[in-house]
Specification:
The complex is a heterodimer.
Chain A: H1 2-27, H2 29-37, H3 39-43, H4 50-53, H5 64-67, H6 70-90, H7 100-114, E1 118-119, E2 121-122, E3 125-126, E4 131-136, H8 148-151, H9 155-161, H10 185-192, E5 194-197, H11 209-216, E6 220-225, E7 230-239, E8 249-251, H12 253-259, E9 269-275, E10 285-286
Helix pairs in contact in A: 2-6, 6-7
Chain B: H1 14-22, H2 27-52, H3 55-67, H4 70-80, H5 84-108
Helix pairs in contact in B: 2-5, 3-4
Classes of the chains: A alpha+beta, B mainly alpha.
Chain lengths: ~290, ~110
């Protein structure tokens, strides 16, 4: 039960921390922007302001950064601080679909921050929205016979993610591999870092079904928690959630954990934009900023 | 080692740390939960203080905070905000009660 008690409490307190961070930024944006703009000068020789501006205190190794050299830490945190600050200026206070102008500004911020091109529209196709509430999905069977006892590569992963369970059905594109023998690292990553998006709400989805089905299959997206600046490269491997749920997309257990998002009453928003990666060079998984 | 904040001497979180100590947690998990608890208290207190200050004073406070000069922080806050120490204590106490409730609920739910 240790893992469950720990996870339950850490989920609650991380969500609370993110709410507090959001409240702090929305109430005192001007002053915090000022601090961001003068950040390097202010913390030269000190890490005192870091907890104020980022969610780094809530990561799973909270004290490691204090032991590392100052300059890399500052550089690492700096990027997230500016990302959070930039997004606060652009995103609406309520979670709603972004208008064209907002989409463009967010795309520019994310492209600049992460160093690769992201866009709300790719090859003339777009999702119904790219700012929405994320819910928790379950693990997907990667090949016939894949169950929880075969699903994890390490004891650590098993401990952390077992309790999320297996989805009763397959992902929107079926199994990732025909058998365990043919399961590649890419197949594993596609399941591990998958998201479910409302493909069926795309404009003209029904009339251009085959075209959209092929376009969305394992399409890479950048998913960002705007409250803590964490970003992950995910792929679309399922369709959902239904409109009646009030959620706009779903994340695998691993995606949710990294983004520090939880389901239920404490759920929160993320940004999700297409990645323009024609040569398929960008790897799936968390982005270490 | 836990970080020392300018208010550490007036905000006692030992009751929560002890509650966590009674739970079946690994040392790493316990340390992480304590850091989350500290981060929540820190943000709540910062929100309280910033809400009491005008825009210029906020900048001054943030500068002192970032420089970790606790004496300057206290001197400044005592000049600018009436009963700031009591207000910080109350804010922290209110949040501690909520965090304590979370712990009790998690400990009480054997099925979790």
């Amino acid at each position: 039960m240790t893992q469950s008690h720990y996870k339950n409490l850490s989920d609650r307190w991380r969500a609370r921390h993110q709410d507090l961070t959001k409240k702090l930024w929305s109430k005192h944006k001007e002053s915090l922007d000022w601090l961001s703009n003068n950040y390097k000068q202010l913390i030269a020789g000190s890490l005192g302001g870091l907890m104020l501006l980022t969610g780094q205190a809530v990561n799973s190794q909270p004290f490691l950064h204090q032991a590392s050299a100052l300059e890399p830490s500052v550089k690492k945190v700096d990027k997230k601080v500016f990302l959070i600050s930039d997004l606060v200026k652009v995103l609406p206070s309520e979670v709603r679909a972004l208008d064209t102008d907002e989409e463009q500004k967010v795309s520019d911020i994310l492209t600049r921050t992460f160093g690769f091109k992201v866009a709300p529209v790719l090859q003339g196709k777009r999702l119904n929205r790219n700012y929405g509430l994320i819910g928790a999905e379950q693990h997907l069977a990667r090949y016939p016979g894949d169950v929880l006892s075969t699903h994890f590569d390490s004891e650590e992963d098993s401990k952390a993610y077992w309790q999320s369970g297996m989805a009763p059905g397959l992902g929107a594109w079926g199994y990732f591999a025909t058998s365990g023998n043919f399961l590649s690292q890419l197949d594993k990553d596609r399941e591990k870092y998958y998201i479910a998006v409302q493909t069926f709400l795309s404009k003209d989805f029904s009339s251009r079904f085959a075209e959209y089905r092929d376009f969305y299959k394992y399409r890479k997206m950048l998913v960002v928690n705007p409250n803590n600046g964490r970003g992950i490269i995910a792929d679309i491997a399922d369709a959902g959630p239904g409109e009646s749920t009030g959620k706009h997309l779903g994340g695998s257990p691993e995606v949710m954990h990294y983004l520090e998002r939880v389901d239920g009453s404490l759920r929160g928003p993320v940004l999700y934009f297409f990645i323009d990666d024609p040569d398929d060079k960008i790897k799936l998984g968390p982005i270490n900023q | 080692m836990r970080k020392k904040y300018f208010y550490t001497h007036i905000v006692d979180t030992s009751i929560l740390s002890l509650e966590l100590g009674d739970m079946d947690l690994t040392p790493k998990e316990r340390i992480h939960l304590i850091s989350l608890m500290d981060a929540n208290i820190h943000h709540e207190i910062l929100d309280l203080i910033l809400s009491e200050l005008n825009p210029e004073d906020k900048k001054t406070f943030l500068t002192y905070l970032a420089s970790e000069d606790h004496d300057k922080v206290w001197k400044f806050l005592n000049e600018k905000v009436e009963n700031i120490e009591e207000k910080i204590k109350k804010t922290a106490e209110d949040l501690k009660k909520e965090l304590h409730k979370d712990i009790k609920e998690v400990k009480g739910n054997k099925m979790l």
